[in-house]
Every structure is written in C-alpha cells, then in structure tokens.
Amino acid sequence: MSNLPSEPEFEQAYHELVSTLENSTLFQKNPEYKIALKVVSIPERVVQFRVVWEDDAGNLQVNRGYRVQFNSALGPYKGGLRLHPSVNLSILKFLGFEQIFKNALTGLMMGGGKGGADFDPKGKSDAEIRRFCVAFMTELSKHIGADTDVPAGDIGVSGREIGWMFGAYRKIRNRFEGVLTGKGLEWGGSLIRPEATGYGLVYYVGHMMEYAGAGDWKGKRVAISGSGNVAQYAALKCIELGATVVSLSDSKGSLVIESDDEPVTPEDIAAIMDLKVKRKALSEFEHGGKYKYLDGARPWVHVGKVDVALPSATQNEVSKEEAEALVACGARFIAEGSNMGCTQEAIDVFEANRKEKKGEAIWYAPGKAANCGGVAVSGLEMAQNSQRLGWTCEEVDEKLKGIMKNAFENGLHTAKEYVETAEGELPSLVAGSNIAGFVKVAKAMHDQGDWWAKL
Q1: 454 given a catalytic annotation
Q2: 196-370 is classed CATH 1.10.10.60
Q3: Cα 411 → chain centroid
Q4: CA distance 255 to 291
Q5: In this chain's numbering, which residues are marked as the site (Important for catalysis) (predicted)?
Q6: CATH dotted code for 41-177
Q7: Catalytic position from the list 114, 183, 399, 440
Q8: pLDDT digits (tens, 9 = 90+) for 394-439
Q9: Is 153 annotated as belonging to a binding site?
Q10: pTM score over 0.85
Q11: Residue 378 labeled ligand binder
C-alpha cells in the first residue's frame, strides 16, 4: 500500500503465501477465504519500545525493542526473540507472519508472534548482555504472559539470555509461570528443546525421502549452512543416521570438507559449539587442513554433488543462481532449517524443476513446515509447565517425531487436494503447507468472529 513504508522481507513472505493460494483451487472452491487473507495479513498488535541500558564504561546506550503479536486465533502468541543489528519491523513482521502458519502446522494450540531488538551481542561483555536483557524485559513484561504471549529464543538469544529475561520477569511481575520457553531444565525447561529444530528438520526430510522412494539417510551427502543451534543439531542427527555432512557456515564464510574420507564429525561440531558460545567466527576453527575455508561465501556452489541441502542460517541464503547450482549437481531434497531461507526466485527454480523432472526432481520443503520442530517442542514445554511436570527425552522425541510426520502428511495431502499435479509429479510441499496452515487459522478466526462470511 502506498501509504505504508516499504517492508521487503514481510512483503516477500506475504507474496510467497498468496501466490501459492492463488495458484491453487482454494479460492475457486472457497472464494470467501479471500476475506480472511485480508484480515490475517495485518498484525493484531505491534509493540515498539526503547531499551535503555548501561555499558561497562558507565555510558548510556539505547536500542529499539519490538514485539509483533500477529495472530492469536489458535492460542497465545508464540515466537522467538531475535537480538541482531539487522532487526527491524519488516523482518519481525515476516517472521511473525510465517510463525502463524508454522505453529498451525504443529497441531498445537499456539498463535503467531515475533520480537527482538537491534542490539548486537557480538563484542559485548556478559555483564552488558545481562543488563540489556533486564532492561529489555522490563518493558516487554508489560505485554506478555503464559496465557497471552510466550516468547522463546532466536538468533542472539540462547538459554543464558532466556534465563536472565525470565529472572527479570519473575521479579517485575512477581509470578513464576511458563512465560518463556527454552528455559533451564531445573526451572521448567524441556528436554530436547535445544535439539528440536535441527532434529525435526531431519525427521521431516526423512519422510520426503521415504515418499519419493529415495531410501533413508544412509550414504546421503548433505550440505548444511549455518553453525548455530539448528545447523549443529541437524548435522549431528544426519551423522547419527548415516549421512555424510560436507559443510557448515556463518556470516563470515563457509567450511567445506576437502575429502569425503574426512567428513564433519560430532567432535568437530562440539568444537564449533564451543566456538560459537564464545561468539567467535568459523575462520578461527582449528581443523588441521581438513576443511577448505571460503571467506565471504555460502557453501552451495562449492560442495559438489550432494543429495540434500539444508539451509539453516538466516533468510534469503539461497539465491536463484545457487538454486540452479544445486539442481545441476543432482540434489534431490532441499528443506529450510532457517526461516524463508530461499529467495522467491530460488523457490521458482525448485518448483519448475519439480514439474519438469517429476519423480527425479529436486523436492523443496518450506521452513514453516520443515523447521516447525523447534516451536513444536516449545509448545510441549508450555504443556509441561501447565501441568508442573517434565517428560523424558524419549517421550519428547517421540512426540516430536509424530508432529513432524503429521506436518509432512498434512502438507502432502493438502497439496493433492488443491494443486493440480501431473502423473508422476511430486506434490508441492510449499503450496500444501501454506494452504493447510492458512485454512486452519482462517477457520478459527471465522469461528471467533474475526471475519465473517458463509462457509
């Protein structure tokens, strides 16, 4: 709209959803859903506030804090808090919009939201980060609660930062409640939560492989971007299931193995985890010549032939040219561990190949489906908090596996229902996931009077 400032990330996420709805039979069969689309695309509430804190030298510093409470038709707003200098309203609206439908695909009762601040933790002392977290929560605490809005971690917010924020909330509100997820195990956290997004991503792709007749993970060559929480645990689960991981990356560059005889190992990942806790770059990882370090590059055009690509760093990390390179090198599956990891042009490349090559094509899974395991276990943490109990690793992992299977099958069957597919063609998981998530939210909004038409 001409009266609104440009919000490129949000507009990209919105158009990606709308294009799949419009190119399906959904609006032909249910034209009234066009009304719901108008309503769901505007947040219920946007909170913006200043965060004033003191650095170690005693100087006053100020940042912008946000919480986008996008949709609560399915439950309390749920979505992470991101601390990164790139944070702005466009990015948080895109993330919150995606979160609505991602949370719907988990089958759990969670609405969609996102928040954070343009604070950069890199280069800050622990004391400075703690003071920022307390100042941030001092304002955010006015707008959240266990039955209202339950934030979690995201980029720049680990379990440590969640602990500082929770402690501030408890003191300010005089309440001990499940207001944040990703908490410590001793005070309400859930087992498997740190691993959940990466593990869930691998479980989801496992169902893609099985449906496409490509076997399981054994012997697969896997390119992964990122080196944070999602990438770390996706890599560990791939290795556990018999795959060869060939790359990791961060914002400064990529590590690509020199030989399949020396793949990424759990020991490598443990060392990288320690490096990242200290907020150091991959360029400082001492690997004894095992890897080739590519300064300023993403891994996709440098990994050679791969079977699976798992973008797990940040938004728009696979371009059209990189998508074409993955297709050319024979990749069969690409699934987003990051949110909106592929540009729209990259998705167009994958979808065109899916239609052209049919059963032999590359098959793309969007983040709102493939990486919903993290928020799913956040939802399970909320359930445990409500009951004042904790489940075992095995219980949580089994529930996660079931959620990822249901998310895959929901997108698959919805695509078959609403998207014309030629004989032998793999169904569009991006269209099916978008439609399934949208319809579930739209029906709940209709029942609650957020929009009205005869269904």
Answers
A1: no
A2: no
A3: 17
A4: 6
A5: 154
A6: 3.40.50.10860
A7: 114
A8: 999 999 999 999 999 999 999 999 999 999 999 999 999 999 999 9
A9: yes
A10: yes
A11: yes
